[in-house]
């Protein structure tokens, strides 16, 4: 045995082991300091919570602001600016106790008067917040009892209020700053949050810095967060590999292929994926024709959509709710893949020689893939779709305006079943771009949002969802599989099922 | 310029390339091993015996898509060059054979269009009118006519000066007769060369437009669009972008070499 060679070999093995371990080790406990670089395909138009609509605005809102309550990883409601609450026996009054000693980033005190002002602004017709329609059916008035106690007087008992106060309507804005800054508030927002928005260069980046007077002791750990605008997930992955960004999300199962086994990168899959569906205007020709819609439903092979666009890692959607949420109904019945039946229905619908239409195709990779597959599958039964490309910044605006009829779309789940089901499928829902109107569904949704009892709500939502999918204001497609990818030295990350990452409590170790 | 035209090697290479691409485009349905539009669950496979260039993100055969892509490219190339000729040659001839205010006005028009950067102009117009095969041919034709007009005008001017003397000696030939019998034969070689170069420019520019998302809509087997779609997957199956990219380069080069070999 040559002891020198053995020693060298052992040293090499030891060194390699140490390098590997160093590369894949998860970050240790919380460490102070550092800058987190986030890569985001940013479509933000405003950082004023009262007017926020776009998906990616919330990434920054949850940093600059706090909400009255927050969501746990299972969508349970937990305290934040409100430490506790009491519901009156008739369910029509809820008194919230507020966190003491909290100030906004401009020094204004956070108290019951500020809460009242925030809700009043959102309900004010002249302010015209998109959240008015969410709050108006529920909140009659907000009453200041004392600086630390505020009461919500409700129009009707509503469990939905709690989930609303954990997202957009719940972001507490500084009344002083909002009134002073006017239109400038959208780019210079002031909340009670752990980070202060210092600078927003549209199309480039958002810079946030640690709030030194943040009320949660010990937080935040990071000094700075920079949100870099990305042109897409591929660039995001590349910049993650070079270390230019520490976090990237909205990654599909194909996007993560190059980084699946990389040292130094950690993948975090989200269990409740985005809901993809194909929608149309159901109140006017040609899609007011039920047999035509059923032909579409039977022609589409959703299993194959999942296999090809999600590498089989998503799941087929029969309705709006994925497994894992408490209002999921395993007994939902949907139209099965049956091309022969689809052809027959197409003829019965009055299109024996085929049907042609334009399918809006936003410049988002997943939609491009889904649309091409839909075109293929529907083409096989005589439905010819022309794919119409549209810039992603314009796409949803056109859907809302009604100029786009047939389009794929996707939504993240809300913390309360009423959240998504109401805004999409109630005749008064603000996101009901399908122009769907069914009185029975309206009645079921109206009733379910006033009942606090879970089993009853579950039954009502089950009936509503079955009616909806039978009526086909849209064809449900799949629930997506998505990932966030982080550098291994970033710690503390956990997904919330609304797919908005929470960066407030992250930390970064050296390396 | 010193060698006899027919013996220049560049021309023959160019002809070979173009003949090859045209043959591929014509024989595409026979040549392509698979249906270029048919998806499969073998997504992003690397090149193999089953798929010589691998598959794309929807499991489609890349080789078949590249072969069919020749059709769109040649259609746009020839179509746009033809449109450019149909606009540019008459304007150039008019400017070069007529004198005075018409010439001045047309020259101003030509210069105005030449000053605008071609790709940017094409981008803007396509974004406004929408991208499909017909619009692309028209837009690219509109972008390409000014250099042709300028070239034809120059050639026509030179010939007109020479012919003028002869026409003065001749017994009252009309301008049209002079153009047809003396100016046009002199202009023709220039036009032919420029046609080839225009095809090359059109194919390249349409590939650029497709790459930027303003080309023929999916699922078209269009080289520029394929390069764009493959961009997301360079680390997984590079053939998805590299193959159509090479096809564009080869075709563009072939037409360009032919065109310049005339000069």
Structure, described:
The complex is a heterodimer of chains A (511) and B (263). Chain A is an alpha+beta fold. Helices cover 31% and strands 22% of the residues of chain A. Chain A has helices at residues 3-24, 57-64, 112-123, 132-135, 160-164, 175-181, 233-242, 290-299, 302-309, 339-348, 365-379, 392-401, 417-425, 439-448, 454-471, and strands spanning 35-40, 69-71, 77-79, 82-87, 93-98, 139-146, 149-154, 195-201, 205-210, 224-229, 247-251, 265-270, 275-279, 315-316, 355-362, 383-390, 407-411, 474-479, 482-487, 490-491, 507-508. Chain A has a 7-stranded mixed sheet, sandwiched between helices. Chain A has a 4-stranded antiparallel sheet with strand order 4-5-7-6, with helices on one face. Chain A has a 4-stranded antiparallel sheet with strand order 14-18-13-17. Chain A is globular, with a radius of gyration of 25 Å. Chain A starts with a helix and ends with a strand. In chain A, 47% of the residues are buried. By secondary structure, chain B is an all-alpha fold. The termini of chain B are close together. The mean pLDDT of chain B is 86. The A-B interface holds A 232-234, 254-255, 257-258, 304, 307-308, 311, 361, 363, 365, 368-369, 371-373, 375-376, 386-389, 391 and B 37-39, 41, 43-44, 57-59, 131, 213-214, 217-219, 229, 231-236.
